[in-house]
Write a structure and sequence with these properties.
Rossmann fold; 2 domains; five-stranded parallel beta sheet; 13 helices; binds phosphoric acid mono(formamide)ester
Length: 332
């Protein structure tokens, strides 16, 4: 039984097959692949797009979604093993995953890292525990990666640019008042290198490098796909000739769990905002972001309202790619 925890578990052909299926599902939205089936959606963190698109997607495929918010309407869950459960959690994931597997045909979970200890969070232990104890396929709705966003991003770029191989892709760090999850940045790096793009990662300084396991996976992907991965802190060189600009803010991993210590570093880099003059350096690049986005903090109104901004298309494509992923997992 295969889960959808990270795109790295799936071959390039398998991913492309799901993207092709998503394109078909976009043309013909309603089907019965999930007829008589139920999908559990566990949200440990807030969501707008993921929650709405999964619920709508399950409905459009003839199934039913059960939304659970552990700690707010359902019992708080413990994910670590061997712990004396004398805190907030009322039950352990090994019971939750097995019980939900008796009711449901798929389990999807959103569990952001806890921003205390990166050495623990980087293991992705929450979703791995769900996958270990579930007897049905598990879908990642964002943990330390966001594979559904990756698929929507790839579909959006393929719709506009066709084959992505050899096209210059800029992933730029942007400022935000607080350190955010690296998941979307990790994911953007993984999917763009997987698709053979010439990827530039623009960061203010080395403290904003992504975890070595993602940097190394990006290097391996690029070597296999014929793409490339370059890291720079030169803003003008990074934007020059780009065909795609994707922005995301994330916290510096050396300061993980210590936002007040990161602040003196972070506050210097507000000029990393994506704006019209920077986009003018590109080769008429598309711009996108996973959303939600704080306007005039991460990108200006001018950029968000421009014809080259495809963030709304990417958000729509979440629906179509997730239906393709659920269809693929349900057929096992
Ligand atoms: N992009 C994304 O996952 O949006 P939500 O956090 O609103 O689900």
């Amino acid at each position: 039984m295969k889960h959808f925890l990270t795109t790295q578990d799936w071959s390039r052909d398998e991913l492309q097959s799901m993207l092709d299926a998503a394109r078909q599902l976009k043309k013909k939205r309603f089907g019965n692949v999930l007829s008589g089936k139920t999908v559990a959606l566990l949200f440990l963190n807030p969501s707008m797009r993921t929650r709405a698109s999964f619920q709508v997607g399950v409905h459009e495929l003839g199934g039913m979604a059960v939304v659970l918010e552990p700690g707010a309407g359902s019992w708080p869950i413990e994910f670590e093993f061997g712990k004396r459960m004398d805190g907030e959690a009322e039950e352990h994931i090994c019971e939750v995953a097995r019980v939900l597997s008796r009711y449901c045909d798929l389990i999807a979970i959103r569990a952001f890292p806890k921003f205390q200890d990166w050495s623990l969070d980087r293991t992705d232990y929450v979703i791995k525990a769900v996958a270990e104890y579930a007897t049905v396929p598990v879908i990642n709705m964002e943990t330390i990666t966001h594979p559904c966003q990756e698929m929507a991003h790839a579909l959006t770029l393929q719709e506009r640019l066709g084959d992505l191989a050899g096209k210059k892709y800029l992933l730029t760090w942007t400022w935000h008042p607080k350190p955010l999850n690296t998941a979307v940045a990790n994911s953007a790096l993984l999917i763009a290198t997987r698709m053979g793009m010439d990827v530039t990662l623009l960061i203010p300084e080395d403290a904003y490098l992504l975890d070595p396991m993602f940097m190394e996976a990006g290097e391996r992907n690029a070597a296999e796909s014929g793409g490339s991965l370059t890291v720079t802190n030169d803003i003008e060189a990074a934007y020059a000739d780009a065909l795609v600009v994707y922005c995301k803010s994330w916290g510096a991993l050396p300061f993980y769990g210590n936002p007040e210590q990161e602040w003196p570093l972070r506050e210097k880099y507000q000029h990393f905002i994506v704006d019209g003059p920077k986009m003018a350096l590109t080769r008429d690049a598309l711009f996108s972001h996973c959303l939600p986005l704080r306007r005039n903090i991460k990108a200006t109104d001018e950029v968000m309202d421009a014809d080259y901004c495809v963030a709304i298309d990417e958000a729509e494509n979440r629906l179509h790619v997730q239906k393709a992923v659920m269809s693929r997992l349900a057929e096992q």
